[in-house]
């Protein structure tokens, strides 16, 4: 069956951010300079071409966009200014919107109005819930757990976590189905799904593959960005653990001494988040690195909400320590509202899903490699050297 | 040679070292000694560089002091220095046609490196041949022909009209003969043209207005050139007009600017004949009319696909195919894509090309087409695109070389076959003008680089796409080149022609008529001398090809400068056994 050229899709991909992809004349310089192009030499050139002809089916089956970390070498070397790196970014956005079966993601990516409206809707809903369903407001001292009882918050956390996980995991399942269901992937031995798990864990925790990327700009630039990202991730994961596993300990009216881990671990996480979001926001503002030259509305929204969540979270802590009850309660309500907006809009439907899709893509590549290895062994009749 | 042993000629021979180009492989001193012993040779010298000023002075002095009546310079190819040494002879007072160049470089030293003794023997024999030719040489004079200050331009397209204007402004009287009823050619049918988007129709309108303003231009429409006689500077041209009347014009030169035809695909070639399939000129017309781009079903077209190289660069599998690149079509198709995107924003355009040749400054048009949202896919002539029309849905299947030969299907509302230029059918004109066409069917110039608008017919010049595919700009450039050659000749008032023409020995001629049949230039006429019919050469028409000399049973025809005596003498001398 011939692949159908679909120029409506071509136009749509321009709307996802690949606006210069028309300029590509397929010289292949992007592949030549890409430090990660090792799969037969067609990365990212092949994706550029699929975008141009609007080969939706082929794109959906492609894992390559997730293997690109946007060092921008290809874009700086491109003789046509076709911006392959940004086209890869646009493809990731497109793929997120395709993995998402609700169609919401597509709306959020293609319309800033939808994006802002969704965020505001969540924020006002959460504030509204607080408006009608908060606990007693104690004003002579700070009693956050009276205003917002921790077991209710915990329940809400878990509810939201469950719902978001459902969306995210079903999306990931579609991703796996498409990538592994590509023609040409041999039968997969069931054990491969387990054996490839370390690939996921290591890449999730370290993004180590990223460090091989961007050799044109020198190691310093890449290391700086990788490190900033790692700090941000570490802050986020720490905060995530504190909130999901230790909320009863973390959200408390008791003031622990500064050397208590509840204090300094929390401060580390907040500092890491502040540093990371600020550094990336400055980068996007200054457009110094190739990756930050083009910022979609969703990119700014991502940073803005994460930054505001951190700031309001710190605010709650400051007001609590200062003994200002009303300020604490109001800031807390905003903190939860913004955090919820960030999570609901970005996790299953937006940029934040990359925390899962990227390591998951490497996991799928590993599974595929194992399947191919197994197929070779079947063909040769003897086990190949491990 | 025995019969020239007692020659009274005084020949000078000069053997050139050419730096070491000759003397490294040929012992020039031995050649000189051999030459010095030849009959008729009164002086033989070697020289480091014969073409240098000092050496030329030395030769000039020798001609004068030794009263030489012929010289031989053994050096390089006559292509390089024939005219140099002819001019030198002329300065010294020696008839330039008694100078002979013996080529011992290209035809000897360079060809036989490392074989010095053999090369030396060969060089000596080449020089002997040159001496024999010089001994038999006669003084000749160039032929001076007065030119008429009038020119005929054949074809009133953009090249012809522009040429007519330029020549009229130089004071020449110009006749323009246009075969069709409507002047302007292809350019008049075009709206926006690349590179500056100027309308072709407006350009022609402007040229025609200026043509009408000039009293020294006469434009004939519906007029075909059916006859040409006379010679350079003084032609008689016959035009046949629509009612069958003939008009006779006396002109000094003819500029042929008959343009091209657009390639017409054969039935079924890339879907030709299917609804929605059209050629580039047809699509261009649709664009220029500006009434919207519509598919075969009459609805606005959403997708336009361009299929390049239709009728161009055809392979051996197409018998009598067009092997050449039409060179304008890539740019024209990209330009049409830019135009289409402006007219129908959001129009999807796919270009199926073989090689993109938007050469020179037109490269930006290719980029503009890309920016306008065109998608370019390259196809392989080994596996060309296939056009289908299943259930009224037009589509092209093409193997995508960038996806490892995977087949892509391009559904499209309009398919534009990007057709090239082919030569016009004009047998009558060819018969009248007797100028050669190449294997591609376009008129041939004498030299593609150095004599690009001259033909082998003296006084007949070619301009524009009649010579081969050209853009409007290139056509006009070549037409003005033809103007400069034409006007330089006609305004000077005369032309000098080389004297190497055939000559009939009227005493021996019996008028059998074989020479008349053999002459491709109609340069032979029958005259009566002392009551006998004999052949006579019209020197101004004769090209000196020698075609008439060969069939002459009476051996009555010789070509001046290449007489039997000279040529056979040279061959005998070269074959002479030496010790």
Main-sheet strand order of chain B equals 8-7-6-12-23
The number of domains of chain B: 4
Structural class of chain A: mainly alpha
Give the largest interface pair and sizes.
A-B, 20 and 23 residues
Outline the structure in words.
The complex is a heterodimer of chains A (386) and B (579). Chain A is an all-alpha fold and 386 residues long. Chain A folds into two domains: 7-99, no CATH class; 104-371, no CATH class. In chain A, 69% of the residues lie in helices and 1% in strands. Chain A is built from 19 helices and one strand. Chain A has helices at residues 7-15, 29-33, 45-53, 56-60, 64-67, 73-77, 84-99, 104-110, 112-133, 144-147, 150-180, 190-195, 197-206, 219-245, 247-250, 261-286, 297-322, 325-346, 354-380, and one strand at 3-4. Chain A starts with a strand and ends in a 6-residue tail after the last helix. The relative contact order of chain A is 0.14. By secondary structure, chain B is α/β, with parallel strands linked by helices. Chain B folds into four domains: 2-140, Rossmann fold, CATH 3.40.50; 150-259 and 424-495, FAD/NAD(P)-binding domain (3-Layer(bba) Sandwich); 262-415, FAD/NAD(P)-binding domain (3-Layer(bba) Sandwich); 502-559, 2-Layer Sandwich (Alpha-Beta Plaits), CATH 3.30.70. Helix content of chain B is 29%, strand content 25%. In chain B, the strands form nine sheets. A five-stranded parallel β-sheet of chain B has the order 8-7-6-12-23, with helices on one face. The mean pLDDT of chain B is 94. The A-B interface holds A 2-5, 7-8, 10-11, 22-23, 25-26, 45-46, 49-50, 52-53, 55, 80 and B 303, 346, 348, 350, 367, 370-377, 397, 400, 402-403, 406-411. Strand 1 of chain A pairs parallel with strand 20 of chain B, so a sheet runs across the interface.
């Amino acid at each position: 069956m011939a692949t159908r050229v679909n120029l409506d899709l071509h136009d749509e991909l321009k709307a996802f951010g690949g606006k210069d992809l028309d300029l590509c004349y397929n010289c292949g310089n992007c592949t030549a300079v890409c430090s990660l192009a090792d799969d037969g030499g067609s990365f990212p050139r092949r994706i550029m071409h699929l975008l141009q002809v609007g080969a939706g089916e082929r794109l959906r089956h492609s894992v390559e966009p997730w293997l690109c970390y946007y060092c921008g070498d290809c874009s700086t070397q491109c003789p046509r200014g076709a911006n392959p790196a940004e086209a890869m970014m646009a493809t990731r956005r497109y793929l997120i919107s395709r993995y998402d079966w609700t169609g919401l993601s597509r709306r959020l990516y293609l319309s800033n109005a939808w994006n802002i409206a969704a965020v505001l809707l969540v924020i006002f809903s959460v504030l509204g819930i607080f408006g009608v369903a908060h606990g007693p407001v104690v004003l002579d001292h700070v009693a956050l757990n009276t205003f917002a009882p921790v077991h209710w918050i915990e329940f809400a956390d878990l509810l939201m976590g469950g719902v978001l996980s459902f969306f995210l995991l079903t999306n990931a399942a579609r991703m796996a189905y498409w990538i592994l269901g590509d023609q040409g992937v041999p039968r997969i031995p069931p054990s491969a799904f387990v054996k490839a798990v370390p690939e996921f864990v290591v890449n999730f925790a370290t993004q180590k593959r990223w460090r091989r990327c961007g050799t044109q700009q020198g190691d310093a630039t890449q290391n700086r960005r990788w490190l900033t990202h790692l700090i941000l991730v570490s802050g986020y994961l720490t905060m995530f653990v504190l909130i999901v596993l230790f909320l009863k300990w973390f959200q408390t009216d008791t003031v622990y001494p500064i050397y208590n881990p509840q204090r300094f671990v929390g401060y580390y996480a907040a500092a890491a988040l502040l540093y990371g979001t600020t550094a990336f926001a400055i980068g996007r503002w200054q457009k110094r690195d190739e990756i930050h030259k083009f910022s979609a509305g969703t990119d700014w929204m991502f940073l803005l909400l994460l930054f505001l969540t951190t700031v309001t979270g710190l605010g709650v802590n400051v007001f609590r320590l200062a003994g200002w009850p009303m300020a604490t309660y109001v800031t807390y309500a905003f903190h939860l509202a913004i955090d919820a907006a960030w999570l609901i809009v970005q996790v299953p439907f937006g940029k934040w899903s990359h925390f899962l899709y990227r390591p998951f893509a490497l996991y799928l590549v590993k599974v595929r490699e194992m399947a191919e290895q197994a197929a070779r062994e079947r063909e040769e009749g003897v086990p190949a050297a491990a | 040679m025995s019969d020239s042993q007692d020659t009274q000629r005084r020949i000078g021979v000069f053997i050139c070292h050419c730096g070491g180009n000759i003397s490294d492989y040929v012992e020039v001193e031995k050649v000189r000694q051999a030459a010095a012993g030849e009959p008729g040779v009164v002086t033989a010298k070697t020289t480091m560089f014969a073409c240098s000023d000092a050496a030329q002075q030395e030769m000039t002095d020798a001609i004068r002091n030794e009263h030489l009546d012929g010289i031989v310079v053994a050096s390089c190819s006559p292509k390089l220095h024939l005219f140099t040494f002819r001019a030198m002879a002329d300065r010294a007072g020696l008839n330039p046609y008694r100078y002979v160049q013996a080529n011992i470089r290209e035809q000897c030293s360079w060809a036989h490196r490392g074989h010095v003794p053999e090369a030396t023997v060969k060089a000596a024999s080449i020089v002997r041949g040159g001496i024999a030719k010089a001994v038999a040489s006669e003084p000749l004079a160039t032929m001076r022909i007065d030119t008429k200050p009038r020119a005929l331009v054949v074809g009133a397209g953009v090249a012809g009209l522009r040429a007519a204007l330029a020549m009229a402004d130089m004071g020449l009287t110009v006749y323009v003969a246009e075969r069709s009823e409507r002047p302007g050619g292809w350019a008049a049918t075009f709206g926006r043209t690349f590179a500056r988007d100027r309308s072709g129709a407006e350009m022609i309108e402007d040229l025609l207005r200026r043509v009408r303003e000039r009293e020294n231009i006469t434009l004939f429409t519906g007029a075909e050139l059916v006859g040409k006689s006379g010679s350079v500077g003084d032609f008689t041209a016959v035009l046949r007009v629509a009612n069958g009347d003939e008009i006779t014009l006396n002109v000094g030169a003819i500029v042929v600017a008959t343009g091209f035809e657009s390639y017409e695909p054969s039935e079924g070639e890339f879907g030709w004949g299917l609804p929605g399939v059209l050629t580039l000129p047809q699509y261009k017309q649709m664009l220029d009319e500006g009434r919207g781009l519509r598919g075969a079903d009459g609805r606005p077209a959403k997708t336009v696909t361009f299929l390049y190289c239709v009728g161009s660069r055809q392979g051996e599998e197409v018998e009598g195919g067009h092997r050449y690149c039409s060179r304008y079509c890539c740019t024209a198709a990209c330009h049409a894509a830019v135009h289409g995107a402006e007219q129908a924003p959001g129009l999807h355009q796919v270009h199926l090309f073989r090689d993109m040749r938007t050469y020179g400054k037109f490269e930006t048009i290719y980029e503009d087409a890309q920016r306008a949202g065109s998608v370019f896919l390259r196809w392989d002539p080994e596996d060309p695109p296939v056009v289908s029309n299943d259930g009224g849905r037009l589509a092209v299947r093409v193997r995508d070389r960038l996806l490892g030969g995977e087949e892509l299907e391009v559904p499209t509302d309009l398919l534009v076959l990007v057709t090239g230029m082919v030569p016009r059918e004009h047998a009558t004109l060819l018969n009248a003008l007797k100028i050669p066409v190449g294997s591609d069917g376009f008129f041939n110039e004498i030299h593609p680089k150095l004599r690009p608008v001259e033909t082998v017919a003296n006084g007949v010049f070619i301009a524009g796409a009649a010579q081969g595919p050209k853009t409007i700009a290139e056509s006009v450039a070549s037409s003005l080149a033809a103007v400069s050659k034409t006007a330089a000749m006609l305004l000077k008032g005369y032309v000098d022609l080389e004297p190497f023409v055939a000559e009939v020995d009227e005493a021996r001629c019996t008028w059998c008529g074989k020479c008349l049949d053999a002459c491709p230039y109609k340069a032979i006429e029958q005259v009566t001398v002392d009551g006998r019919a004999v052949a006579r050469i019209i020197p101004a028409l004769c090209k000196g090809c020698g075609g008439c000399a060969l069939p002459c049973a009476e051996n009555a025809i010789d070509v001046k400068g290449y007489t039997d005596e000279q040529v056979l003498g040279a061959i005998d001398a070269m074959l002479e056994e030496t010790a």
